[in-house]
Structure prediction request, 776 residues.
Amino acid sequence: MNADFTAEELEFQKEVHDFLKAEFPQDIKHKVDNGIKLEKDDFVRWQKILYNKGWVAPNWPEEYGGTGWNPTQKYIFALEMGLYGAMEPVAFGVKMVAPVIYTYGNEEQKKRFLPDILQSNVWWCQGYSEPNAGSDLASLKTTAVREGDHYIVNGTKTWNTLGQYADWIFCLVRTDNTVKKQEGISFLLIDMKTPGIKVSPIVLLDGEPEVNEVHFDNVKVPVENLVGEENKGWTYAKVLLTHERTNIAQVPNSKLKLQKLRSLAANTADGYGGTLLDNPVFKRKLAEVEIQVLALEFAELRTLAAVSVGKAPGPESSILKIVGTEATQFIDELYMEVAAYHSLPHVPEQFTEGFDGEQVGKGSAAASSNTYFNNRKKSIYGGSNEIQKNIISKAVLGL
Amino acid sequence: MDFSYSDEQQMLQDSVQKFVKGRYDFDTRKKLIESDRGFSDEYWNLFAELGWLTVPFREEDGGFGGSAVDLMVVMEEFGKGMVVEPFLATAVLSGSLISELGSDAQKQDMLGAIMEGKLQLATAYAEADSRYNLASVATTASKSGDGYVISGDKIVVFNGPAADKLLVVARTSGDKFDRDGISVFLVDAGAAGVSTRAYTAVDGHRAAEIHLKDVKVAADALLGAEGKALAALEVVIDRVTLAVSAEAVGALVSLLQKTVEYTKTRKQFGVAIGTFQALQHRMADMFVECELARSIVIMAAMKLDSAASAAEKTKAVAAAKSRVGRAMHLVGQEAVQIHGGIAVTDELDVGHYFKRVTTIEHQFGDTDYQTMRYAAL
Prediction:
């Protein structure tokens, strides 16, 4: 048993770090470090830099543009990216729809869609959830009825993260109403510019329209946009969901947040002449979450070591989803605790580029509450943590 | 042993409950928050007419009696509606401070006006580095001629934007953490040298960062004896802490009810999600937390109304806020989680209750602070 990096791996780590230092745009880093809202262009610009380096999709098979890295290299890459504060590529294209396309799509679809995903020419969003199909995803009601060489799509999808930026949406649609609910679902790719699609924003608790509802009113979709076989979409959907859960542990991100939190606490007055890091109650909580992230990191390493290239992790990834999201949420709570009264002002304008009014509070303290509120979504999305526990109960424990 | 309300308290509860149910629905509240003022002057006048603004005050000051149990009754109902009118900032916090510290002339000047709904106040106590220590005061007030000159920066002053007058906690002598040397001054919100950075807080209430630069006030702006205000400030903040704890109970009970109702109607996998035992047990836990929160708030309110020592009263309030803090954390998070995605949107009231109780968690001492304060007493 050995969890040390080899000399080659250490060299690779340095290569990644040097690349980030040289290539991650300074203006984007400034935004990330100061909690300033990122725009679409920031994501696209950075992803194109990653593409030019050949590192945008480490999990893809090499033939489609993957890096050919082993699990340790992938881990090192994710670690360095997270610790540097560099954003992962937006998941909907690279991590979600692409694995479905390269696994189940035909050659023409691969040629048509994969290069644009790699090069960030096309922004994808998800069309899985519906207002009445959340945890029970298979009960979805959006229909696609075949008419000649088109499907006519009707229904409503929800929680389309950053759907306002999207060029394309991948959708689960019902193509057969007469069979068991899982057996009548198909996987369709839909151009957001098609007539009949309406996007309406949903404002979240932090006041930001981060997600959307997408309405389909007799939307004509060419049959060549069907991935794989009709009525087999549920199988593909499940594969996508397990891919979605890779890196859902968010260990590098949590480590970075914890480093910053520790130094923030060391510089935050406790109100009695010392700092918050002198406070044993706070220190204990900080230690608890550090230990949780450490355990999580090794749980993730063990999972990674067991996964071969391009293959989706198994049901044990549910552990990573549950603990990873809980750790993130707990860290958010501690940021709010450190900020105390400073966490209460709602001043989103000061976290946008070019704000030149009077700053409220110190640093990003005033954003800590909204981060906390917003990240309550983490234990709900991607298969709620309750669903993850069902998966563990059934698939792992055999209950 | 009797935990029932008196007839008067029952009437008070009925009257606030009727207002919240009939005139304070979620959409009305949303419109008030989005308005320029941030709350309704019409409702404020109604509060005055119905006598609610007299609740925090003693009979000799012209009030309803000033009992903590009365205050609890009103605040719990306000909590159910997430009322944003500045009852706490103007009447409970600032009003009680005037009542504790003010001269007869000052009380006559202001308490009547508060109770009639004609005076808006805000108390500026917290500072950038003070956290929850009321004795940590860097703002200074130095003698100058017949009056004082005040300089310093105050943070998160609730009702700061609408206040006609500010009650500013400033140091007239001593070092930053000394218990001695803290005074309270009345400052006109529009006085030269006062600048206000107004904003809406995460819970929809209005607040401000207030900067005071060489603000001149007359000698009669001082409330109480110079340098001796801390003890009164602590008593008042304890009272306010009890009040928000009671408000939290109202909000938590609402969260529990809404969650239970939702799980009866929301169907997944062909059944109402309330039929899942995993969720039933969690809602049972929420219920237990709500009951314990209400119980400990009643305990603390009765203690404040008793002849107990100052230390016992403080200990009771610390215990209440600590325990209610735990309830706010659990019930708030579980209500959101059990509702799922819909509760992290702005459109459902559940998220707004969650934001309000989270705000209360971080006001006047968070759960750890209150627990350690209890342990130290």
